[in-house]
Amino acid sequence: MNLWKLFGVEKPPPDVESESSSGTLRKIIAELDNLEEDRAKYLAAFAYILGRVAHADLSISDEETREMERIVAGMGGLPEEQAILVVQLAKTQNKLFGSTDNFVVTREFRNTATRAQKLSLLTCLFAVSSSDQSISTAEDNEIRRISIELGLDHIDFVAARSAYKQHLEVLKNH
Questions:
Q1: How far apart are the first and last CA of the chain?
Q2: For position 18, what pLDDT does the model report?
Q3: Domain coordinates of the chain in residue numbers?
Q4: Which of 22, 43, 73, 162 could pair with 83 as two cysteines, CB 3.0-4.6 Å apart?
Q5: pTM above threshold 0.85
Q6: What is the DSSP-derived secondary structure letter of residue 135?
Q7: Given phi > 0 = left and psi -120 to 50 = alpha, else beta, which region is 8?
Q8: Right CATH for 3-172 from 1.10.3720.10, 1.10.3680.10, 1.20.140.10, 3.30.310.50
């Protein structure tokens, strides 16, 4: 499965191709391309949705990026280098096409993920958004929208959110 195509990239960017001449990046890309198709789609959608929340406030911090990489590596069983590449692709796609692809990607995830996977994603969304010790109102609202798009109940959202309430900006200001 070609992970580049899952993110809507027909050909790797020129800087990636030039770096791959050293062999390191080329090997990572080849290994990602060897992922089983359903697993690659799951990881691509999962990473994209993480990026959706990180970009909700129009800025993706270094802390959010590192947390996304950690989560993708852990959830996907990927080596760090592959997780970094997947997260970078997801971040780029969110910045370029987020407003048009958000619902489509989340719907695809909803249709293929189990309830447990959806709840896990919900928790990971709060982990990413709180990685800089602050969950902005925009991030909180985006997570709520995603939980609705995933078909989760409000109680699921509240339960996941409660574990991160100390980071909610809306509560810090009162």
A1: 49
A2: 45
A3: 3-172
A4: 73
A5: no
A6: B
A7: left
A8: 1.10.3680.10
**pLDDT tens sequence across 31-85:** 677 788 888 888 888 999 999 999 999 989 999 999 999 999 998 889 998 899 8
Sign of the four-CA dihedral 13, 77, 43, 167 = negative
The position carrying tokens 């992922």 is 35
The helix/strand count (H/E) of the chain reads as 10, 0
Look-up of token digits 């809507």:
8
SS3 70: helix
Query: How far is Cα 73 from Cα 83, in angstroms, rounded to an integer?
Result: 5
Q: Which region, left, alpha or beta, applies to residue 23 given φ > 0 means left and ψ of -120 to 50 means alpha? A: left
Contact between 87 and 108 under an 8 Å Cβ cutoff? The reply is no
Number of CB atoms found within 10 A of residue 173's CB? 7
- Our CA angle for 102, 55, 34, nearest 5°, is 65
